[in-house]
Amino acid sequence: MRVRKALRLIPMTLALTACIGPVDNAKPRLPVSDEVPTRMAQPDLMPLPPMKVFARPLPAAPLRANSEIAQDFMDLSFRLESGRNLPVFTRFEGPIRVAVSGQPDRDMIEDLRRLLTRLRTEAGIDIDFGTGPNQLTVEAVPSRKIRQYLPQAACFVVPGITTLDQYNSARNTGATDWARLERREKIAIFVPNDVSPQETRDCLHEELAQAIGPLNDLYRLPDSTFNDDNMNSVLTGFDMLILRATYAPELHSGMSRDQVQRLIPGILGRLNPAGNGQISTLAGPTPYDWIEAVQTALGTKGNARTRTAAAYRALAIAQDNGWTDHRIAFAHYVVARQIQTTDRMRARAHLTQAYQIYRRSPVTEVHTAQIATQLAAHAIYEGDGALALSLLQGQADVARRAENAALLASIQMMRAEALELTGHGPEAAPVRLDSLGWARYGFGPDWAVRAKLNEIASLRPAEIRG
């Protein structure tokens, strides 16, 4: 079994309401108060524009050395997220056919179609809709049904079965144990059908990639969905390179770690010539106690004090290890998230630290956009529209490249607020209108989009609303 943890769907942008509360990249919360800013009353009564979708993928090519990517490939392919080593290399051998069951909607089918097209064209994998000896089944079910089996899961992938109802009995026989596989032939993916289109799509990308490719996640990867930090929503250029290497003709199921390790440098040299000769800057290993602290801080178990202590523990571990990369930035973010309602100024200081670290590298541009949006929320709350516009400049383009509609909608909504704060009201209206189509994909139903608009509108200081 391979699980996408529910904590991965925790929103990554913050807004300030009263003190500071979350501007979700998933379903927004309904406003606590019935009071709605006057200027938002009319849009609430008007029909929303059609949902927008991204026309074509824009993945960036990997920017790191092949020697570094080779180590990533080995760590991704021969270890489970739990830390268990896998005895042999496994993949599908031959054409992969994908069947859809349950109650999928049209948006999910279209997103799956786009994903399969990408896997064929970018990763060179023979995968398409249909049935065959190598069968991958995607079952769309209500979130509550997934949680009946795995309370902490948003979606998950399992070998050896085709329906969710088979899961418990198959697990008792060991049929769902990835470490027992010698090759992949029958795998099922279970995704929610009652969340926003973006949430379902993100599940499809992560779980399908791990159904056919590596099973591990590595926090050290800044440019990958094979990472539990939730910054990259769709498969990246790095991910497609890893999948293309997984299905290179030199490899086959049953190979040992040593056999694959001897071949992977040559495979990457052929598939990614730009990475040859580059200097490796491979990040050191991520200790399990840091991972455990992050998962506790962002999880649903325990109380606020426990989660806050875990967040500070993760930051202390990062500092003790001398990290200067995206992992310590993420630790600053995790702390900010935990203290946002009790110490707004300190939360902003931690976000600023994360922002400064992320913006050092083009590989973490989407991370920078996520944090910039949160800092812009602070600026709007303080009435500083000029600072908010400065922070948001160029970030909409980053969100488009990352195909993150929830982030893009939040950026545009905040830009509209900042434009009004700076006396550019006529310019705000088309920006806000642009946000709505993206919000319908990123946040889902109309009530969620309108709640998001109201939530962001309530950022502005009360004396200048209306």
Summarize the structure.
This protein is of the alpha/beta class and 466 residues long.
Please characterize this protein's 3D structure.
The chain has helices at 41-45, 66-77, 106-122, 143-149, 167-173, 197-212, 237-246, 257-271, 288-298, 304-320, 326-339, 344-358, 365-381, 385-392, 395-401, 405-421, 425-443, 446-457, and strands at residues 2-5, 13-15, 21-23, 96-102, 127-129, 135-141, 153-159, 186-192. It has 466 residues and is α/β, with parallel strands linked by helices. The protein is globular and about 65 Å long. The strands form two sheets. Strands 1-7-8-6-4-5 form a six-stranded mixed sheet. It has a two-stranded antiparallel sheet with strand order 2-3.
What key attributes describe this structure?
single chain; 466 residues; alpha/beta; Serine Threonine Protein Phosphatase 5, Tetratricopeptide repeat; 6-stranded mixed beta sheet; 18 helices; 8 strands; 48% helix; 9% strand; globular
Topology readout:
Blueprint: E1 2-5, E2 13-15, E3 21-23, H1 41-45, H2 66-77, E4 96-102, H3 106-122, E5 127-129, E6 135-141, H4 143-149, E7 153-159, H5 167-173, E8 186-192, H6 197-212, H7 237-246, H8 257-271, H9 288-298, H10 304-320, H11 326-339, H12 344-358, H13 365-381, H14 385-392, H15 395-401, H16 405-421, H17 425-443, H18 446-457
Parallel strand pairs: 4-5, 4-6, 6-8
Antiparallel strand pairs: 1-7, 2-3, 7-8
List how many beta strands DSSP finds.
8
CATH fold title of the largest domain: Serine Threonine Protein Phosphatase 5, Tetratricopeptide repeat
Secondary-structure-based class equals alpha/beta
Rg, Å, rounded = 22 Å
Q: Catalogue the unreliable spans.
A: 7-44
Return the domain count. Answer: 2
Calculate the terminal CA-CA distance, rounded to whole Å. Answer: 52 Å
How would you sum up the major sheet? 6 strands, mixed
Average pLDDT reading: 89
